[in-house]
Write a structure and sequence with these properties.
Blueprint lengths: L15 E6 L5 H13 L4 E6 L5 H5 L10 E5 L5 E6 L2 H13 L2 H10 L1 H8 L1 H17 L11 E5 L3 H8 L1 H4 L8 H13 L4 E7 L3 H16 L4 E9 L6 H8 L5 H10 L6 H30 L5 E5 L7 H13 L4
Parallel strand pairs: 1-5, 1-6, 2-4, 2-5, 6-7, 7-8
Antiparallel strand pairs: 3-4
């Protein structure tokens, strides 16, 4: 039987979590944290990487992942996180063997460079292979009928490509009307369009990532693909109270008061120069807080669950990843 713990979550019944976001927003980090959160309490979760960057291995401080499922972490309360870096070439050979019994031919094609040629002239086929491998993991069962994985998390391509990547049925329509390729694409779409799938968007509280999130959500809706939640990553905490922020933004901070504070702290040397630098930094901080508030308000209009992850001042290490997973669980994301 699957090992499932009782918990309150916004995504009961969802087994495929697709994570996308604009480049630079921390998409892979959030996908890894979500996998840890979903595995907590004794569940088995597979984290799939499809872009060949080995970002998962770096996050979990392990060697580069081969094309096989490997355990990379133990979640809180005993759950297990496995990871798979999908290699397009290996996946295509596996695909040829599965549907055409052409494993030897596939390896020969690889040596001749035909694999690259095929996936270049028919990029829709590449996406079918990548999404198909993930969909197979979602559907895989043990002999007793229980699912091998309680959930699968895909670290997917960026927002600008996510609709085309997931809408594989449309992408292969010009390649195959019938046959194994078409059947495989249809199987993928049954998984992707089902209530068992949710596409989550990662964003920063900055204008371009938020706009790409809004556009990406609308594009998914236009083709009938399931939108999940919005995960706001790396939110900067306010360092000043509301009154001080307003004064800093308006350039009205009391320089003399700052100087007195510096001297009281024993920083008498160049106190006036330091005060000017601090006032400038406070003004920058106030502008950032105003930007965050404005972009957060834009996101608030979306009818989808939202989760906020803090900026980790020391960067993301393994301990920080567990902290982010805890934050997602506390907010009901897993």
């Amino acid at each position: 039987m699957n090992r499932v713990s009782a918990r309150d979550t916004d995504w009961d019944g969802v087994r495929l979590h697709v994570v996308t976001g604009k480049g630079g927003v921390g998409k892979t980090t959030v996908a890894a944290a979500l996998a840890l959160a979903l595995a907590a309490g004794g569940r088995n979760v597979l984290l799939v990487e499809v872009e060949g960057r080995q970002g998962i291995a770096q996050l979990f401080d392990c060697p580069p992942l081969p094309y096989e499922e490997r355990k990379v972490a133990i979640a809180p309360d005993g759950g297990d996180v496995y990871a798979l870096a999908v290699d397009t070439e290996e996946a295509l050979i596996e695909y040829l063997e599965m549907f055409y019994n052409l494993k030897r031919a596939g390896k020969a094609m690889s040596r001749l460079g035909v694999v690259d040629f095929v996936t270049t002239i028919a990029p829709g086929l590449r996406d079918v292979i990548l999404t198909g491998k993930t969909s197979e993991a979602v559907r895989r069962k043990r002999p007793d009928g229980s699912f091998v994985y309680d959930a699968v998390v895909m670290d997917a391509p960026p927002t600008g490509r996510i609709t085309k990547f997931l809408n594989v049925s449309e992408e292969v329509s010009g390649l195959a009307k019938v046959g194994p390729v078409r059947n495989h694409a249809d199987m993928v779409m049954r998984v992707v369009r089902s209530p068992e799938t949710a596409v989550h968007f990662v964003t920063l509280l900055e204008e371009m990532p938020v706009q790409e999130t809004l556009d990406g959500i609308q594009e998914l809706k236009d083709v009938g693909l399931p939108v999940g939640g919005v995960i706001i990553n790396m939110e900067h905490p306010p360092m000043l109270d509301a009154e001080a922020l307003a004064a800093a933004a308006a350039g009205r901070l009391d320089a003399d008061e700052i100087v007195r504070g510096l001297k009281a702290a024993g920083l008498e040397h160049d106190a006036e120069q330091i005060a000017r630098v601090l006032a400038a930094e406070a003004a920058d901080h106030a502008r950032r807080m105003a930007l965050q508030a404005r972009e957060k308000e834009r996101l608030a209009a979306l009818p989808h669950p939202k989760y906020v992850l803090p900026l980790l001042p020391d960067g993301v290490d393994l301990a920080g990843l567990y902290d982010l997973a805890d934050a997602l669980r506390e907010q009901g994301a897993a």
